[in-house]
Fold:
Amino acid sequence: MSASLSKSRLQGLGTTIRHRCQQLLGPLALLGPAGIWLLLFLVLPTLLILDISLVPDLRPEDVGGAYGLGNYSRVFNPFDPRFDSVYLQVIWRSVYYATVSTIACLVLGFPVAYWLAIMAPRRWRNFLVVAFILPLWTSSLLRSYAWISILRPTGLLNTFITWLSDLIPGVDLPTQNWLYSSAAVFVGLTYNFLPYMVLILYASLEKLDISLLEAAADLGANPRQTFWKVTVPQTLPGIAAGCLLVFITSMGDFVVPTLLGGASSMTISRLIYNQFLGITRNWGLGSALSMILILAVSLAIALLLKYGDRDSVKEA
Amino acid sequence: MPRKRSLYLPSSSRRLGSTRRRFLQGSAAAIAGVTLSNCRQNLSNQAAPEADPAATTPEEGGASGGDSGVLHVYTWADYTSDEMVNAFTEKTGIEVIVDIYDSNETMLAKMQAGGGDAYSIIYPSDYMVQQMIELNMLTKIDKERVTGLENIFDKWQDPVYDPGNSFSTPFAWGTTGLLYNTDILTDTPTDWDYLWENSSALSKRMTLLNDVRETMGMVLKSLGYSYNSTNPAEIEEAYERLIEIKPDLASFMSFGYEDGLLSGDLAVVMAYSVDALSSIAEDDTLNYVIPESGSSVWTDTLVIPTTAPNVDAAYEWLNFNLDPAIAQLNTETLFNATPNKVAYENLSDEFKNDEKLFPPEDLLAKCEGIAPVGDAAAVFDEFWTRATSA
Structure:
């Protein structure tokens, strides 16, 4: 009796172990390929960049070199004899471009997302959303180049403005000269990242409980109060997610400032490019600047995970 | 009133050819450069050719370039023509694959990162040849396998960048100057000072090359200093002078200016003669001038990297390009000045007397070749970063 009992117990134990193994095997098989991919092509390269960034002024032909914080102190430490405030200026400009284009995306994107999620006819909704992300199907290089032909002094926009001025007698509309200035960078970045903002806000607004808006109206709130007290607080995680995503991507963007920014729009991504492909070939400093960008972006992603609406990001 | 010409008007369609392609290729090359893998391993591998001369054997190279019937060429945009490549394939049976780069530095970075192992022929400029020799990246040329070097002008028989042409053969030369739209500029620019004197009138309608050495060198020259100054005080003075006109510059660009120049959005750009002359050939409202105080004179060469997988085909390419008939074809179709004496003499008078292509000796005497500046490169870069950031 006791023998059969222990036998069944053993059997039970065997099944449990097998069960546990199966439980482990599933996730392992599912996560393995992606995990190896991330390890090989994200974690290891990032560690290599970190490694190179810790060798002051490393050039590609140098074999190794003494470790030190020289590259970082050159950027941040005002007491370093090699300190040059130009690097901080460049980082500041990147942050400034990213901030302005994030705000522009939010201001332009929120009404669109609101209309799509709440006011647009239901059967048209998917079609409209697809139409909105359609521009993402072309290369961002081509989209930036298209902006050159729109914004240049004899380009599409000025031709249109002149045509409009001629059409309305007595009105002389001013033409723009935005190409190769910060304005063109803002336009380019906002245009490029607006679809992301709209998608995330749409996903967030779609979940909005309409009955709450109706309840607010029934209780005497005017539309403005309803918007600020009910709609915005409920979609705040979506707003945070959209803003951070746009901020992160525009912070590291290379194409737009390079093609549209002209002579004065050095950003951190262009500076990194110059360190690797310029005359100094200072891969050490370039890697340090890359690490600074990676850390800034990681910080933003950490904030996104903590405060953002993860569901909307996933749905988008 | 400038003619209105732009992308969306059909009148410009005939120009969509080489410039647009070059612009897109250049941009794509620039962006691809950012994604360069910066592996530390590759850094240390760079010392390998020094320690291990066997690395030059054909078996060593990348698999894609190892095929004896394929020659991978890494060159500037519009430095080869279909006509010339087809003639080569017909003659030798070797298939040619051409990749392009937009600056010497981009090419060097790619080669150093190990991304250029497939290439058996590269086209570095003079100062880059010198730098690559110092980095042990070039194969010494076996003179017994090369024919036709005697046809090269004496000037290039023993060039400063590569004494005795031990590692390179001269391919083409040219200058750097000002390309402008004659419909817009009522007067003719004659010197670099023109940019400073007319900066407010031409505000946001001028561009300079996105090339540290050329642009900083030009300002140094306009101050009466050398392109190759290593004196930090002189370089700083050049920087101060550069930022005087910076608010009036549209951009620093080495390619992609032609459309703007023809539409009148740009009035005058700093350009390499080879690009300027091919633009003029497409539209004669443009003109090119070599500033009278002198400019840079550059030589682009053919070299075989130590990593070349197909050295035999590389020699075939060298000899093919030393053929006077081919050198003549290159000058006639690609607008680069040939260093080949026989080819030069066979050119029609129209080409020979074109002072934009072959400047007179007294002007050339004032021009300078760009040479490596050693540690002063850091000073150049520092002021260049400031100039482009301010």
Q: What stands out?
A: Chain A has one domain: 54-315.
